[in-house]
Amino acid sequence: MEELAGRLAALDPDAGAAVQVIAYFDRLVEGRAGLEALVRGAAVLSGCPARLVDEARQVRLRVEADGRRRDELGPVRPEWPSAPLIPGGAPAVWLERTGPRTVVDAMVLERTASAARHVLDRTRGRAPVHGPADDPALLETVLDPTAAEAARLHAARGLGLDPDGQARTIALRGGSQKQLSLSLASGERALVQPVPGPELPHEGRVGVGPSVPVLELPRSWSAARTALRFTAGGSDQDPGPRVVHADELGTLALLSAVVAPGIEPPPDVRALDHAAAAAPWLLPTLYAVITSPSLRTAATELNLHHSTLQDRLAHAESLLGWPVRTPQGRLRLQLALTARHLARNQV
Amino acid sequence: MTTTPPPFDPELAAALAVMGEQAPTTLLPEWIPMARGLGDDGPFELPTNEVLSRDGAFEVEERSVPGPEGAPDISLIICRPTSVPGPRPVVYHTHGGGMVLGNSRMGMDLTMEWAEELGLVVVSVEYRLAPEHPHPAPVEDCYAGLLWTAENAKDIGADPDRIILAGGSAGGGLAAALALLARDRNGPRAIGQMLLYPMLDDRNDTPSALQMAGLGIWDRTANDTGWTALLGEARGTADVSPYAAPARAEDLSGLPPAFIDVGSAETFRDEDVAYASRIWQAGGQAELHVWPGAFHGFDGLAPQAALSQDARAARVRWLHRLLGE
Q1: Which domain of life is it from (chain B) (predicted)?
Q2: How far apart are CA B311 and CA B305, in angstroms?
């Protein structure tokens, strides 16, 4: 009898069901129910399998919609609704269901995660890591290619990562300090996220490393740092992408080896800097041109009349000394703008 | 003595909170007509023949067979496994409902689970309900169906030497009464009696009945409603027959092996534990499970709960041992 699920499904999802979900979990918490009962509640109330995974405390359990425990943890699918144990953290509770998310799903996830967090804290000690101040050494270890494998796996668990799963690194400059991150002497910060996992940081410049097995995170980190050098602040003086994925750089990544701060920049970069000093509109205008499918859309984006843009580009061409409206000239411009980021951004 | 009730198991308490009015704690006599209507639709919908057939694993028929002497015919639901050659052991099922509610399809999801697992025939009897039909009508209807089942076992692919009496709640009480009746009338001897949280004692005054008043499912007031409907003025007096209230039987020897389960947080806890103890004291065989923090009928109302899963599994294991297969 899948009566509970049936009953809830029949209820008004916005009113009655939500109240019942709250009542159900309140009673579980009151009765000091264990983790399995919580996950079973999630499964039964939502009518689909539910799982809880807390790698840091080595908890993995899964319950099917009929209430039976069956810990066959296949890979997590990114489209499953999920909730973290702590706000902003990695997902820890999933409903194994695709399709539109309901109000009840969200409520079930929130209540399960919140109750599970308390049970975990009560029965298995507080999670080892709550912020960078707690143990940045774990991040350092997981990103260190010279650390022993066992040490890196231990550190990964401590960070809440599945040792058999995928993860990615993020190199970050600027933005808030909310997330667990390791600050490096060079000024950027390192983040590690499970994949699938939380969103990218919403602020600051972000270099995203490829998704890799946990033991290969040092490789992801090195790529993320490279990607970070291709980012820009986004101001008129520094137009460019705020977020760059290492995976999407392709051959451009090679450029990072030859252009760097402290090395004499290529002549085209110097020409750009020189021209930018003469015409403050130059950099944002050129950036719009290389990132827009046509000059017409570039003009719209810049809020300029098409003919005004043409005038500006003619001016830019005379300042730079090469055409920017031919395919070849456009490529040269693109490379120069990219090299300009590399010349300005720390290694 | 303290009246602090044992706490409900957390999962069962949560289910109870969600079910709310759909799983009422009590029953008053004037609510009986309304309560009877609940089975017709809604959450407690009873299994149709198609559901009982379990995708063709069983052939389901309803048969009208002779009732007790001078009484109307009774109807039996007969479910025969289609892929297991007979004769097979047969579960003779008496439904629950406090002697006042329900019909022969109630509780059949449980018996069909056993039947599918073990390849059993199931016969479920439609008996007349109190208060319109007080004692002995319900138990005599059940007994008439048992006689027919034993005598016609071959026709329905059943083995008359392997009858298991089974029922929950009032149906558990009826199953226990059938075991007593069959013993005393030299009727069909069952090989086992499966008594799920059985309703056995019309006196309704055990510590558990007092302790759980107003709590859980089928509290003392509901129990009073059921017994009074069945026995009228005689309830609680010395005149009550053991075939109405098996706890009244003075002799519990010579009965088929019993399986008895009950929740620690329900009215029937103490009378059911006492019944098992008295079977042992009489030299009989009984297996007793008291599920901690369980309310009456917990496994049906909250089948997903860990305790419910364990309780269901324990019954199937007992059947395996009883039947040696």
Answers
A1: Bacteria
A2: 10
